[in-house]
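Fold this sequence, please.
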Amino acid sequence: MDAKVSIYEEGKVKTILILTANPKGTPHLRLDQEVREIEEGLQRAQRRDHFNLEQRWAIRPRDVRRAMLDIKPNIVHFSGHGAGEEGLIFEDDVGQPKFVTEEALAQLFELFAPQIECIVLNGCYSEVQAKVIARHIPYVIGMQKAIGDRAAISFSVGFYDALGVGETVEFAYAVGCNAIGLEGLQESLTPVLFHQGKVISRSSKYISQRLLQGPTSPTSEYPLLVGILVDVSWSMTTSIKNIDDKVQNRFEGFRESLHKVVDSTKEICQQEEPEQISPLIKLFALGFGFGNPVSFILRGDSGNRVRDLLVLENTSECTTTVSQLINDWNLYEKNIESMSKSMFGDTPMGEALRRAEERLDEELSKNFYYKEPILFILSDGLPTDVSADEILELTERLQEKGIIIVSCYVTEKNLTKPRCLHGVAEESWEEGAQLMFNCASIPSSTSPFYSYFRELDWEIQENGRLFAQINETEFLEEFLRVIISPLIGHKTEQNRFQ
């Protein structure tokens, strides 16, 4: 099913099967109220004659199978308790809790995949089951954490109100999330929507942006959101070649390159309005690797290993506009310099990626942004807090949300072919280089990233990833500029949206 196609079809009746379970010994849920309000919403809907609502209460595992065989639903809605990895909680023959795993549910729903268009798992921590089921069903909604009764009911009512008037699942999801917020509840980010096996969003606002499409390049109303993760661990003290033959370590090389990119951004942003800098980019930067032993012993520094690099004194705002960064660059640079004494610890890359994901989720949930946020990762080593496989799981999850990951591996060696976007990691590469390569996104041939590297005469191999091995600041600056490549064509796009 296409992402923009409504479940409603002229002349066809869609059947919704509601399954409920509230076993003995589990917290009481107002399931009757949820089902009643869903039913009332569909009855008043413009296309009420095109939906048939069926219900099964106090379900046991075999009741689900029988309902699927007898009713042949197009939409399946479960309301009850979830327990994450342990499974969804159904009932046994005497009404006690019966845990059903995600694999068992996925295998069942796979048998009926040709007829099922959407599954809603309205229970706590049901994202685990949703992710597995989504391999077989076009749309699946789960909850990434605990969700209260009021929020669960609000989401269901909003979701089916929208479906009942012929809206798409994506739009209905956004309405459901918004319904939670309208009730003054803080759980609007709890529902997670999967489409064709991938997370579309944990944010109704981001879904709205996808539906509206927005401009094809950043504008003041839809700025580009950029996150930067910088490794500041001990290995970053190693020197890097500089075009002026200056001696500087890798972190200093990054800081200098970022300054030059900021200056380039200023020129682009002032093309339309020379007297002011349009807010075409908002960004945050996290350094990971703080907390070296000397700092702890001499200064008692036991702070976070991952810290914001672009936060000025007496401010709490962690995401800054490019105009603020340009105007106050000296203050930002001074602040970063003051943090250097606490740098050069271990390499908590996993913690940094989780922090970046939280920041991206927060920004995308409350503001409108250009459709392809970027996360730039600069590192020269392997993580010390999690395994390489866990790093790949984290970056895969970010890419499922539509985040473009640009990965830069800093080393003094010549591992890769210069100015080349490789499509395959070579066996001779260091383990760290292979990890960073596998973290990177593959740009489409129509993306601004692809065009940027083409204009610089980079070789782009088949399935070439946004990855580069850097051993000179000149190449670092060139690769770092990829984060502003979507600004190309801004003038044309801005005129189109006026």
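The longest strand covers residues 224-231. The chain has two domains: 14-212, 224-496.
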